[in-house]
């Protein structure tokens, strides 16, 4: 149900932690602790935000997103599904650390099937810093989540006046407020305190998303980072510790040393699902260029970076999709 006339859109804010909820630490210098301030208190500090929407705030976790995990992901899905199914909300905002924000966004994108805007937001400077970016980012995220034109656009990330789609967005700078980019696709829109612009029309959800198991954890998928002078050891170790899937953060177009590729081929033969991605940070990984994917039984991640390829592969394995051509098809969707 959309807000009409004088009725304000109902936005549910789910707090998970991160720098946006960070507070200066007693440890001197520029040290701070993530996740100290509740979502409700973050909102209370922003002038005029109550004129944007009717806000309810709940805390799902209070962690730096380096500690993001399946339990919090399952809790988020459960709460969002309940809110959507009960028609409690017109939009959802999730406050989140920036380190793994793209992984949570992409996870939710793959399992949630709704046109309700789901917007992740964070900040690069803690709430107590000079020039804290959290309040403006949160205001803009609320604006996006409250807007009818945000419906049917999947899971979005809003920081620094820019709106990104879950599939394409990446953190690209360790400290800058201009860190989120979509190197292969560009942003989907722009927002500031006075305006909201999407560059393309919405493409409403068409269902057939991946199912989430009843309870965590998701199947284990390890990422192996490729480098010069690489042998088979990391791949063999991953298989020994029970990885059901391996994502290669390959050099270049998803390449790796002969030793590593041979070990991956052996792993694939044993039923471990292997996906080649790239450590480069932009561009597509193509099939059968320098590596014989057809022969070795590998899939490639296309545009998905290793951390997003890992999320998708966990979900595919959980859904019983392990055959290389079926995995490849799912990556292309
Ligand atoms: N800017 C940030 O949000 C990074 C802080 C923290 N490492 C996190 O991801 O939660």
What does this structure look like?
Its EC number is 3.5.1.1. One of its GO terms (molecular function) is asparaginase activity. InterPro entries: AsnASE_II, Asp/glu_Ase-like_sf, Asparaginase/glutaminase-like, Asparaginase/glutaminase_AS1, Asparaginase/glutaminase_AS2, Asparaginase_C, L-asparaginase_C, L-asparaginase_N. With about 325 residues, the chain is an alpha/beta fold. The chain contains nine helices and 16 strands. Strands 4-1-5-6-7-8-11-12 form an eight-stranded mixed sheet, with helices on both faces. A four-stranded parallel sheet has the order 13-14-15-16, with helices on both faces. Helix 3 (about 100-110) packs parallel to helix 8 (about 305-320) and helix 5 (about 235-240) packs parallel to helix 6. The longest helix is centred in the first third of the chain and has 16 residues, at about 70-85. The radius of gyration is 20 Å and the shape is globular. It starts with 8 loop residues before the first strand and ends with a helix. The model has no long low-confidence stretch (mean pLDDT about 95).
């Amino acid at each position: 149900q959309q807000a009409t006339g004088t009725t304000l859109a109902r936005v549910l804010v789910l707090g998970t932690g991160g720098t946006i909820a960070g507070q200066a630490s007693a440890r001197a210098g520029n040290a701070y602790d993530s996740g100290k301030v509740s979502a409700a208190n973050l909102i209370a500090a922003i002038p005029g935000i109550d004129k944007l929407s009717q806000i309810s705030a709940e805390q799902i976790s209070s962690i730096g997103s380096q500690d993001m995990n399946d339990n919090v992901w399952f809790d988020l899905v459960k709460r969002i599904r309940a809110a959507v199914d009960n028609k409690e909300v017109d939009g959802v905002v999730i406050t989140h650390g920036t380190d793994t924000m793209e992984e949570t966004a992409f996870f939710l994108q793959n399992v949630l099937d709704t046109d309700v805007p789901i917007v992740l937001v964070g900040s690069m400077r803690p709430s107590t810093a000079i020039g804290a970016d959290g309040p403006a980012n949160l205001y803009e995220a609320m604006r996006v989540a409250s807007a009818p034109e945000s419906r049917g656009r999947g899971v979005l990330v809003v920081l620094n006046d820019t709106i990104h789609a879950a599939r394409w967005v990446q953190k690209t700078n360790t400290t800058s407020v201009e860190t989120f980019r979509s190197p292969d696709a560009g942003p989907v829109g722009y927002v500031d305190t006075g305006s909201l612009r999407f560059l393309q029309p919405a493409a409403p959800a068409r269902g057939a998303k991946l199912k989430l198991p009843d309870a965590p954890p998701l199947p284990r998928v390890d990422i192996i980072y490729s480098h010069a002078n690489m042998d088979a050891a990391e791949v063999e170790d991953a298989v020994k510790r029970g990885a059901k899937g391996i994502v290669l953060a390959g050099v270049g177009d998803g390449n790796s040393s002969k030793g590593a590729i041979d070990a991956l081929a052996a792993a694939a033969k044993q039923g471990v699902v292997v996906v080649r991605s790239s450590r480069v940070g932009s561009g597509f990984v193509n099939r059968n260029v320098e590596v014989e994917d057809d022969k070795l039984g590998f899939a490639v991640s296309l545009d998905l970076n290793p951390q997003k390829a890992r999320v998708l592969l966990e979900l595919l394995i959980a859904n019983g999709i392990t055959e290389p051509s079926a995995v490849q098809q799912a990556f292309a969707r």
